C-alpha cells in the first residue's frame, strides 16, 4: 500500500522533498499557499538564482555558522554535486562564477523554477496551489493529516514541513510553519535577521545614499578591537546605512553581537599599501597644486564621496593643495585606508536574505529530518535553525534537507504494517 505524504510549502526544500518521496513510491500532495511554486526562488541572486557553491562538503559545513554540523547526513546523502547533476538531468545547464557561486547559464531564476516544475510533473506530484494549512493533525504523538484554512482535511501518513523562514514575507515566508511546530511542542530558537543590510550611527552616511563602491575591502571589529571579519568586493550606501554583497556577508559575523557596538572599517584603496597611496596622493597634489583641496580629489575618489572625505579629514576644503602639510597628507592617507563607521543595528528580519533561528535542531533527527517529538513529521529548509553565508550555501541546505526528508517521509515502517 502506498504511503500518503503531504509536503507543506513549495520552495526548493518542499519541491525536492515531494519529488523524492514520489520517486520512492509514495502518494504525494504538495500544498502551497501562493498561486505559483518557488516564489522566493524567483528573486534570489537578484533574479539570477545562486543555486549552490562549487566546493567540497567540509567547506559547505564551514560556511554554515548556524548549526552546520547538523548537515553532515544531508550533504553526504545529496551533495552540491548531486544537485548540479540533478538540474542537468532535467535540462538546466549551470556555470561557476567568482567564489564558487553556481548560477544557471541563462542567468534566469525562472529557468530554475521551470526545471523544478518539470521535475514535479515527471514524478506525478499533485500540486495544490492557493492552499493554506491551518493545523497539523496529530494523534498519540503521530501525524494523522492536515487541516486547511478553507476547512478541508487531508489525511496522510507523514508530513514534510518546509514553509521557510520570515524573511521576504511577500513571497509567502510569514512564519506559519513555526506556529504549527510550536503547537506540537517544538522549541523555536529566536528568529533573527541574517545576511541583512546594516544601520549606521554617523549622519554623513546618508549623504552618500546610492553610492556604490567597488573593489573595496572591509573589516569588522567589536568594541574591544577584535577583528571579526574581513572581505573584498562591493558595497552600497543607503538612507539608513550600508548594504551590498560584502555587507550582507559580514552581517552574519556580528549576529551574536546583536549588530551593536561594531566598527566597520572601509579600505577605499586596498590595492595600494599606505606608503604607495601616500605617494599617489603626492603625485595628484603635484598635478593639482594650484587647486583648492576640495577640487583635488577627482582622480582618486567618486564625486559624491569627496565632500565627506574633505570634511572627515579636517583639512580646510578652501586650502590650496600646495599649502597642505605632510601631516595632513598622512592624515588623508590613513582616512582612505580606514574610513570608519559605527554599526548600531540591522534592518528587520523581513528584509534579510535568510532567517537565523527556527526549529531547534536538538529536536530533529539529523539522519532523517524527522521530528523527535512527533512520529511522521519531517522538516526541511529554512524553517530549521540553520543558516549559512551568501554564496549558494542556503539553497544547498534547502535542497539537501529536502532530499533527506523526502526519502525518509516516504519509507514504509515495519510498525505501520502491524
Any overview of this molecule?
The chain has 2 domains: 4-190 and 360-417, FAD/NAD(P)-binding domain; 197-346, no CATH class. Helix content is 28%, strand content 24%. The chain contains 12 helices and 19 strands. The chain has helices at residues 12-23, 57-62, 72-77, 80-89, 109-122, 176-183, 204-207, 245-251, 274-287, 306-313, 326-337, 393-409, and strands spanning 4-8, 27-31, 52-53, 94-96, 101-104, 126-128, 133-139, 142-148, 153-155, 158-161, 188-194, 198-200, 212-221, 227-237, 241-243, 262-267, 339-346, 354-359, 377-379.
CATH-defined fold name of the largest domain: FAD/NAD(P)-binding domain
List low-confidence stretches: 414-418
Per CATH, the architecture of the largest domain is: 3-Layer(bba) Sandwich
Superfamily (CATH H level) name of the largest domain: FAD/NAD(P)-binding domain
CATH class of the largest domain: Alpha Beta
Strand order of the largest sheet: 12-15-14-13-16-17
Number of domains: 2
Class inferred from helices and paired strands: alpha+beta
- Specify Rg, calculated over alpha carbons: 25 Å
What is the number of helical segments per DSSP (H or I, 4+ residues)?
12
| Main sheet makeup | 6 strands, antiparallel, barrel
**What's the count of strands?**
19
Our estimate of the beta-strand percent is: 15-25%
State mean pLDDT (0 to 100 scale). 96
Amino acid at each position: 500500500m502506498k504511503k500518503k505524504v503531504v509536503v507543506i510549502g513549495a520552495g526548493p526544500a518542499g519541491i525536492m522533498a515531494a519529488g523524492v518521496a514520489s520517486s520512492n513510491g509514495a502518494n504525494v500532495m504538495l500544498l502551497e499557499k501562493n498561486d505559483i511554486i518557488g516564489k522566493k526562488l524567483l528573486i534570489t541572486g537578484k533574479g539570477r538564482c545562486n543555486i549552490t557553491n562549487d566546493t567540497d562538503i567540509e567547506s559547505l559545513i564551514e560556511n554554515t555558522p548556524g548549526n552546520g554540523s547538523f548537515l553532515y547526513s544531508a550533504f553526504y546523502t545529496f551533495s552540491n554535486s548531486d544537485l548540479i547533476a540533478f538540474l542537468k538531468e532535467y535540462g538546466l545547464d549551470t556555470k561557476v562564477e567568482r567564489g564558487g557561486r553556481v548560477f544557471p547559464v541563462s542567468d534566469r531564476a525562472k529557468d530554475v523554477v521551470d526545471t523544478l516544475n518539470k521535475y514535479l510533473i515527471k514524478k506525478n506530484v499533485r500540486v495544490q496551489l492557493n492552499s493554506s494549512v491551518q493545523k497539523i493533525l496529530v494523534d498519540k504523538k503521530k501525524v494523522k493529516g492536515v487541516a486547511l484554512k478553507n476547512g478541508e482535511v487531508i489525511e496522510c501518513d507523514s508530513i514534510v514541513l518546509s514553509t521557510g523562514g520570515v524573511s521576504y514575507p511577500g513571497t509567502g515566508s510569514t512564519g506559519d510553519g513555526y506556529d504549527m511546530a510550536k503547537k506540537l511542542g517544538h522549541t523555536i530558537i529566536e528568529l533573527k535577521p541574517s545576511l541583512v543590510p546594516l544601520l549606521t550611527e554617523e549622519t554623513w552616511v546618508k549623504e552618500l545614499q546610492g553610492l556604490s563602491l567597488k573593489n573595496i575591502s572591509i573589516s569588522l571589529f567589536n568594541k574591544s578591537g577584535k577583528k571579526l571579519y574581513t572581505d573584498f568586493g562591493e558595497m552600497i550606501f543607503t538612507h539608513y546605512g550600508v548594504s551590498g554583497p560584502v555587507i550582507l556577508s559580514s552581517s552574519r559575523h556580528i549576529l551574536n553581537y546583536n549588530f551593536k557596538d561594531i566598527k566597520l572599517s572601509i579600505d577605499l584603496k586596498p590595492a595600494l599599501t599606505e606608503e604607495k597611496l601616500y605617494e599617489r596622493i603626492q603625485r595628484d597634489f603635484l598635478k593639482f597644486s594650484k587647486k583648492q583641496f576640495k577640487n583635488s580629489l577627482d582622480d582618486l575618489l567618486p564625486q559624491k564621496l569627496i565632500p565627506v572625505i574633505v570634511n572627515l579629514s579636517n583639512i580646510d576644503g578652501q586650502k590650496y593643495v600646495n599649502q597642505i602639510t605632510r601631516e595632513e597628507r598622512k592624515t588623508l592617507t590613513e582616512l582612505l585606508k580606514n574610513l570608519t563607521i559605527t554599526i548600531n543595528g540591522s534592518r528587520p528580519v523581513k528584509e534579510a536574505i535568510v532567517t537565523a533561528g527556527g526549529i531547534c535542531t536538538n529536536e530533529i533527527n539529523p539522519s532523517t529530518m524527522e521530528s523527535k517529538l512527533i512520529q511522521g513529521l519531517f522538516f526541511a529548509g529554512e524553517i530549521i535553525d540553520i543558516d549559512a553565508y551568501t554564496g549558494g550555501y542556503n539553497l544547498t541546505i534547502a535542497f539537501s534537507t529536502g532530499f533527506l526528508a523526502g526519502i525518509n517521509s516516504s519509507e514504509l515502517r515495519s510498525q505501520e504494517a502491524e
